[in-house]
Design a protein that fits this description.
Layout: H1 9-28, H2 36-60, H3 69-72, E1 80-82, E2 88-90, H4 91-97, H5 99-106, H6 110-119
Antiparallel strand pairs: 1-2
Helix pairs in contact: 1-2, 1-5, 2-5
């Protein structure tokens, strides 16, 4: 699968919104009895896909890939939501991990940056 096509901002917005929604649905599905190990596998796979497409999007926007550290590292900030005995989510840490995704949403791509420089 070619993940580089998500470097375009419009494609990235749609794909990242879907992936974040899938993660939220997977975490919320623990309340209906889905096993925690299955939720973990789905969430990790989707989080890896989100990190990969965010990497390509940040490269297209000429931003540092160092921003991905916020997605990879987990911060225990803010209130904790205990979904089950095995699944715990830190709300503040989850918000911090979305900062690179938001940067990908608002940062202009290389083609847009060149057009802005030429018009100035």
């Amino acid at each position: 699968m070619d993940m580089t096509r998500y470097a375009d901002r419009s494609r990235y917005k749609n794909a990242s919104a879907v992936l974040v929604a899938v993660i939220c649905l997977a975490l919320a599905s623990v309340n209906i009895g889905i096993p925690a190990w299955l939720i973990f596998l789905v969430s990790v796979a989707v989080a890896i896909a989100l990190t990969i497409i965010t990497h390509y999007r940040l490269r297209d926007a000429n931003l540092s890939s160092g921003w991905l550290l916020l997605m990879i590292l987990q911060f225990g900030i803010g209130p904790t939501w205990h979904l089950s005995d095995h699944v715990t989510v830190n709300i503040g840490g989850s918000i911090i991990s979305l900062v690179p995704v938001l940067l990908g949403w608002i940062a202009p791509g290389r083609a847009n940056q060149k057009a802005e420089l030429e018009s100035a």
